[in-house]
Amino acid sequence: MAESSLRPMNALGDTHSVETSGAHAAPDLQFENLEQQHATRVFGMWIFLVTELMLFGALFLMYTVYRAFYPAAFAEGSRHLDLALGGINTAVLIVSSLCIALAIHAARTSAKRSQLALWLLAAAVLGIVFMVIKGYEYFLHYQNGEMPVFNWTLTGAGAGHVQLFFWLYFAMTGVHAIHLSIGIALVGIMILRALLGNFKPNAYTPLEMTGLYWHFVDIIWIFLLPLLYLIAR
Amino acid sequence: MSAITLPRQDTYLNINYGIRSWLLTTDHKRIAILYLVSITLMFVIGGAAATMMRIELFTPASDLVDAATYNKLFTMHGIVMIFFFLVPSIPAILGNFILPLMLGARDLAFPRINLLSWYIYMLGAGVTLWALIAGGVDTGWTFYTPYSTASPTHVVAATVGVFIAGFSSILTGLNFIVTTHKLRAPGMTWFRLPLFVWSLYATSLILVLATPVLAITLVLVAVERLFHVGIFDPALGGDPLLYQHLFWFYSHPAVYIMVLPAMGVVSEIIPTFAHKGLFGYKVVAISSIAIAVLGFLVWGHHMFVSGMSLHAALMFSAFSYLVAIPSAIKVFNWTSSLYKGSISYDTPMLYALGFIGLFTIGGLTGLYLAALGVNVHVTDTYFIVAHFHYIMVGGSVMGYFGGLHYWWPKMTGRMYPEKWGRAAAIIIFIGFNATFFPQFILGFEGMPRRYAAYPPEFQFLNMLSSLGAVLLGIGYILPALYLIPSLWFGKQAGPNPWDATGLEWKTSSPPPANNFEKIPVVTTGPYHYPGKQDKVG
Ligand SMILES: [Cu+2]
């Protein structure tokens, strides 16, 4: 709508709103070149993960404080968790991270679109498997009366402290599950974009950012497993 | 803005028109204007609550409002002013507009995330305002457990609103950090960055590191409230003090979120209006980072009477003294910079000088409070209220108004009327001191905060404070009355009306949509004053 033509159109604000992706040849307005754009976005993802780490960090702090207050109750609470299911889920997530890494490798080495999409699909499916197993665990807790508010049947001395453990268990695994769900959705979008041929060997920034996020969610779980499942063992 | 008669020049304002072009913009300058409008609205709401409180406190009896309403008023005042005015004001308005210009960049690193952060802010503000309209909240802005999980008021909506707004802060901080790292113009090394950039960078570090802790803590409070049982519940063995620790882990650094950007503004205004470089540039730059780091180690000074071990209290006390050092360094460097300068007392400079004086009083009384014995004596009295208002209002708000006037010509292309500007600045300064200085005395004499009624012997000082508040209110209304007409009637500013250094003054006013016709190349430090003709790039 600018009536003046003092400056070339591509230097004006219109480019602000153009949907861009790594596949486009030209970088966004604020970048000199694609390398700068790529480095900036990946750096932004790292800063975002620092924020996420502080979010989980607050939960880890609460856990540490209450575990120091009530070590016996936390050990007792931990015995109510199913280590087999937790262990399987750990393996599932580690393999899913491998799939993500292989997907990025496929993008980098200009493998076929279908190959890239398959690795991503494997990661997404494994993420869903994790969620299903986690949901089953929640269901078992509900059945056994280990879910505060909804069905809590533990009584006796120290039951309140055990309930604190379960509050933290549900808070930490719940926030983790929310993050994993977002990760699965992101990978789903990446599958579509991979099939559309959005990614090139030198242009796969969104894929790399998704991968960073996925690995982060995975690593959080690696810390949750011993803190929650292995206290008493 | 349609009355432009000069040959048409392309600016970010006239590149396109219509509500859509604003609500879907990704231009950092337009987003800054969106923030300016919405944050100003929140300032008015928070100010209205404060006005009601000061009218109530004019007389000893609780006659205008009852105690319950008074509790809701100070809660609303605190929540709105802290989370929706002070935290975002300078970063999201002035920082958003100026940071890319100062760096020689065409926009922030993530323009769409920048727009998203405004929408998140609006959503958070909407939810919070709904809570306040639906019946209010009476917990105070701190949401202390266990009361916040039992209070019969709308705590959940208020905490959810603050939680949402937190993500707006986080995204803004993230954007600033990445932009400062990755989008500096050629030759713009770290020690050539203007001090406003340094202070925004330090602020952004705090935003990114501290806000998520508050966010998750408030979620758990909301959950506990919904289910009447939860993680801070003493009945289970939960610890309300843990809530206080987590809350202040954010909220003390948040003080620096609010005051560091204002310090950055002052660091820009002083060299410009003293017409000479800033004394000890590097020390001032590093002191911003030092404040951000040390600010994370002092939160316990809000809890000296809540119950903590003597060892912890001593450590927190010692760190609270330490964190004053980098702030003092800044004050000394600003005042030294005035020495032998040719000073012009334009409006921004008046605000900057006001900032230095009031912030110094706020900072020195902060040292009293860092001392354990004095702290116990004055905790929860008006001494505390006066102290943090000297920092927040005397410091941050003065800095904000100074920056707004300083960059107004850049943002709008028009000058504001200088005489009106000076008058408002002086009225605000006098009104502020009349409002809050009596509160130091009231507090020291033992008047507790957060009560609608008080013993008659405190009336004289309270009347003084309320009359001061009237003056302060007039001072705050004035800028709206002359800044808005200046959009049409102000004289053309030109690129550099203050004869300032810094890249933002190298482009036209208002800047074109892409900021610079050609990205500048930087060859000198930010406050380079060898002669008036000095050019950067
Ligand atoms: Cu503090």
Concise overview:
The complex is a heterodimer of chains A (233) and B (537). Chain A is mainly alpha-helical and 233 residues long. Chain A has helices spanning 34-69, 71-79, 83-108, 113-143, 159-195, 205-229; strands at residues 146-147, 151-152.
Describe the structure.
The complex is a heterodimer of chains A (233) and B (537). Helices cover 70% and strands 2% of the residues of chain A. Chain A is mainly alpha-helical and 233 residues long. Chain A has one domain (48-229): Cytochrome c oxidase, subunit III, four-helix bundle (Four Helix Bundle (Hemerythrin (Met), subunit A)), CATH 1.20.120. Chain A has a two-stranded antiparallel ribbon with strand order 1-2. The longest helix of chain A is centred in the C-terminal third of the chain and has 37 residues, at 159-195. Chain A is elongated. Chain B has one domain: Cytochrome C Oxidase, Chain A, CATH 1.20.210.10. Chain B is mostly helical. Chain B has helices at 19-23, 28-56, 67-103, 111-133, 147-150, 155-182, 195-227, 240-274, 281-294, 310-322, 324-338, 347-370, 372-378, 382-412, 418-444, 459-489. Chain B has 16 helices and no strands. Classes of the chains: A mainly alpha (233), B mainly alpha (537). Chains A and B meet through α1 and α5 of A and α6 and α7 of B. The structure holds copper (II) ion.
